[in-house]
Amino acid sequence: MEDDDERLLERIQQGDGESFGVLYDRTWRWLLSCVVTPRVGAAAAEDVLAETYRTAIDRVGTFEWKGVDLLHWLAAIARRKCLERLRADGRGERRTAGPELLEALPDPAPSAEAEMIRTETLGCLSDRVGVVLGALHPRYAEVLRTRLLEGVPRADCAARLGVSASTFDVVLHRATKAFAKAWGER
Predict the structure, then answer these.
(1) What's the pTM value of the predicted model, to 2 decimals?
(2) Phi and psi dihedrals of 137, rounded to 5?
(3) Of 81, 88, 63, which is closest to residue 10 (Cα–Cα)?
């Protein structure tokens, strides 16, 4: 993928608009769902995504290949654009509110940036976990979902499968190993 990205970058830097279209097609869905929308919400997401690609077009000429794929570069731009949008929205609200209202507002516990990073990470991890579970044997996937994701007690999980608790432990162990192997391959 890195070699492919490097060649794609070279073509884009030479002014090949079609290559930028290829980059856009490869990246926009992930950026929108995992980076932009969780940070700024659906209403502002498309505008922020458009700002991200405008900035990428403006800066692609100065981008130096250092072995980092283009998706990470675009994600960094998108995160900055989200933060700029959140800051701009926050400043606009403060200008319209009186000082007494601002003093009465509680300070938010996590910063907007920290919350955005947490939301993005959880969303993308959740998507990856779902993909890996979908690739496992259905019984293994069911055992992992039931015991680990839903938190169903061990004895109840065994009863659902119609096996003894010790047999359930063996199935859970095998399912965990299969998940770890599939996760590593992805």
Answers:
(1) 0.49
(2) -55, 135
(3) 63
